[in-house]
């Protein structure tokens, strides 16, 4: 039977599925934005690497390779340094604060002795919150918004609103944590592996110091991106939840594609023939 009737093989177009187009687009954009937010939060665990004491550094442009002998027509840039030492740090699990202190008992041979640096907890504690809460919240939002995004119904509106609101609170926790540690101006000690004098006393925000440092500015950019995406995701998710809970079910469905009246998943029924789909007399459909 043809695709115009009840036969097999008919793919229901996106625009003809259940629910509103506007709500489906809103849910789809929220899903995509949450996916980007999860990726940005995961990048906070990456390393920072530099060649320290190198005699000369330059950019080497070579054809990008995909493995198995395949070469691209595009060129990739690689930083090459002659001499020096490759130093790597991972701010995610760095524990160098507080700085080492002089041991009051000394070493016993006339030289100063220092206690070890760190206190057993990560220096950038807010990064842990952003990575775990931000990523988990994004995954929850992706799952909760799937039904509305694909216009296939979905879970009960209470389940959707609770999950997305919980995700908004987790994103908000990441924003507050990053804001307290990186965007609050105060007197504090900063550790920088790549500087000859590794401990600095600053009276400014931690983000301001990092973004103006030639070694750690890339890490600061990732922190700023995570703060921005978590903040916008939290605002979007809270507004999305409020739209689901609107008194008017028609408005809620129009804005989120989550409807209280049709929350029960219904079996798909092929669309009925339209007048424009009728086969003209004299023609047959195989």
Q: Any descriptors?
A:
two-stranded antiparallel ribbon; single chain; 16% strand; alpha+beta; 286 residues; 2 domains
Outline of the structure:
It is built from six helices and six strands; from the N terminus they run H-E-E-E-E-H-H-E-E-H-H-H. With 286 residues, it is an alpha+beta fold. It has two domains: 14-47 and 90-264; 51-87, no CATH class.
Characterize the structure shown:
With 286 residues, this protein is an alpha+beta fold. It has two domains: 14-47 and 90-264; 51-87, no CATH class. It has six helices and six strands, in the order αββββααββααα. The protein has a two-stranded antiparallel sheet with strand order 1-4. Strand 5 (186-191) and strand 6 (199-204) form a beta hairpin. It is elongated, with a radius of gyration of 28 Å. The relative contact order is 0.17.
Outline the fold blueprint.
Layout: H1 21-42, E1 48-52, E2 56-67, E3 70-82, E4 85-89, H2 125-150, H3 157-182, E5 186-191, E6 199-204, H4 206-211, H5 217-244, H6 249-256
Antiparallel strand pairs: 1-4, 2-3, 5-6
Helix pairs in contact: 1-2, 1-5, 1-6, 2-3, 2-5, 3-5
The first-to-last residue Cα distance is 7 Å
Biggest sheet record: 2 strands, antiparallel
Write down the secondary-structure element order.
HEEEEHHEEHHH
Mean pLDDT equals: 80
The tally of helices reads 6
Total beta strand runs: 6
The side-by-side strand order for the widest beta sheet comes to 1-4
Helical percent range? 40-55%
Radius of gyration: 28 Å
Given helix and strand content, the structural type is alpha+beta
Overall shape:
elongated
Indicate how many domains the architecture comprises: 2
The low-confidence runs, each spanning 5 or more residues with pLDDT under 50, are: 1-10, 263-268
* Strand residue percentage: 15-25%
């Amino acid at each position: 039977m043809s695709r115009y009737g009840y036969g097999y093989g008919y793919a229901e177009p996106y625009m003809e599925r259940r629910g509103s187009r506007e709500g489906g687009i809103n849910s789809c954009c929220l899903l995509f934005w949450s996916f980007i937010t999860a990726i940005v939060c995961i990048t906070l665990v990456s390393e920072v690497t530099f060649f320290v004491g190198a005699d000369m550094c330059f950019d080497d442009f070579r054809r990008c390779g995909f493995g198995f002998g395949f070469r691209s027509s595009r060129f990739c840039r690689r930083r090459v340094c002659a001499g020096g030492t490759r130093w790597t740090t991972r701010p995610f699990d760095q524990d160098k604060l507080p700085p080492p202190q002089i041991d009051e008992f000394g070493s016993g041979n006339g030289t100063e002795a220092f206690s070890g640096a760190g206190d057993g907890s990560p220096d950038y504690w807010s990064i842990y919150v952003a990575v775990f809460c931000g990523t988990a919240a994004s995954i929850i939002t992706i799952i909760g918004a799937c039904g509305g995004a694909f216009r296939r119904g979905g879970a009960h509106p209470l389940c959707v609103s609770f999950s997305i609101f919980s995700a908004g609170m987790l994103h908000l926790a990441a924003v507050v944590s990053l804001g307290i540690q990186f965007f609050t101006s105060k007197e504090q000690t900063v550790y920088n592996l790549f500087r000859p004098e590794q401990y600095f006393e600053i009276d400014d925000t931690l983000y301001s110091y990092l973004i103006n440092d030639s070694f750690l500015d890339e890490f600061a950019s990732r922190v700023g991106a995570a703060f921005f995406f978590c903040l916008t995701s939290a605002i979007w998710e809270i507004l999305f939840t409020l739209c689901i809970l609107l008194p008017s079910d028609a408005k809620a469905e129009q804005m989120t594609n989550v409807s209280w009246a049709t929350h029960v998943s219904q079996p798909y029924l092929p669309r009925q023939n339209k007048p424009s789909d009728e086969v003209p007399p004299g023609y047959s459909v195989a």
